[in-house]
Every structure is written in C-alpha cells, then in structure tokens.
Amino acid sequence: MFNKHLIPDAQNLPEGKALNVKVEDYDFLITKQQGQIIAYENLCPHQNKKLTWSTENTLEDEGDYLKCHHHGALFSPKDGTCITGPCQGSHLKKVIVGMEQGHCYLLLA
Known about the structure:
By secondary structure, the chain is an all-beta fold. The protein has no helices and nine strands. It has strands at about 5, 20-25, 25-35, 35-40, 65, 75, 80-85, 95-100, 105-109. The strands form two sheets. The chain has a six-stranded antiparallel β-sheet, with no helix packed on it. β8 (about 95-100) and β9 form a beta hairpin.
C-alpha cells in the first residue's frame, strides 16, 4: 500500500522545469518532461548528498539537465541517468507518481 502525498502545483509546472518538494524528512525533485510529471529522490548517487540544498535552480544553466550542486554531475531529467560527473552511468532513484482527479501525487511505500 502506498501513502499519497500531493505534489503542489504539479499541473502548473512548465515543461522542462523542475521543483523541489519536501515530504516529511525526504526531499524530491519533480520535473515535467514531454508532458509527463517525473519524480526522483533529491540524492546524488555519488555521495548520497542532496543535488540541491537551497532555492538554487535544480536544472543547469541551459535547463536541459538536473544538476548536482556539490560536484557538478548532470542527470537526464527523462530517466535520471548521470551523463557526466563523478557518478557517470549511475541513476537517480525514481519515485512513483500517480494521478487522481487531476492532481499529481508521490506514491511512497
């Protein structure tokens, strides 16, 4: 059974943008790619540190990749694969996103 946690303003998230969401003691990165809401744990696989730790932009300057602000690793927002940096080839941990009555939810076990 999953616990549902509303993703605030997910339906208003612009295409190719990302936001940080905190649920209890956990942080998540939410992005919209090709109309789909995708969620990852906000942890870099390199040292299990948050990719972002403040209100800094989650995406790199061009807006094409999720960026770890500790070591500069870049991740594909579509599948969480690290394409460059100290954890190249590793993946961000994807989180299940559900839809109900027009709202997006993180579905956590």
